[in-house]
Design brief:
- The chain has helices at 32-63, 69-86; strands at residues 8-9, 16-17.
- By secondary structure, the protein is mainly α.
- The chain has one domain (8-86).
- The chain has a two-stranded antiparallel ribbon.
- The N and C termini lie far apart (48 Å).
Length: 110
């Protein structure tokens, strides 16, 4: 019986993951370069989530509210993503919304 070698491939780019060459730190199915790219782009994605949430809030305010379940789902998803990334719960953002407040930003190295 021959030993079978398990080949792991990156879920993002499909390249083979080889330990000590392009292995990742978190071992979440990505190669090192893809994991690094995801890490480096997180602040921009977080900022985009905040901008989208603020824009939805402004439109809901202009039209006097929204009962569309898709809007509620989008707001819930954005709030959850921001909370996961920052530890800041914005679930009550509509009640005390200040359009001049910015979304919490990650500092370099966080």
């Amino acid at each position: 019986m021959k030993n079978r070698i398990s080949i792991t491939t990156c879920e993002t780019c499909g390249s083979e993951i080889v330990e000590s060459i392009n292995d990742s730190n978190f071992h979440e199915g990505e190669c090192g370069p893809c994991e690094y790219h995801r890490y480096r782009t997180q602040p921009e994605l977080l900022h985009a989530c905040g901008l989208a949430l603020d824009e939805i809030d402004q439109w809901v305010e202009v039209i006097g509210g929204s009962e569309d379940p898709r809007t509620a789902f989008a707001v819930h998803a954005l709030v959850a993503a921001i909370a996961e990334a920052t530890g800041v719960d914005r679930s009550n953002h509509c009640a005390d919304r200040d359009p001049h407040k910015s979304v919490p930003q990650l500092q370099k190295g966080e």
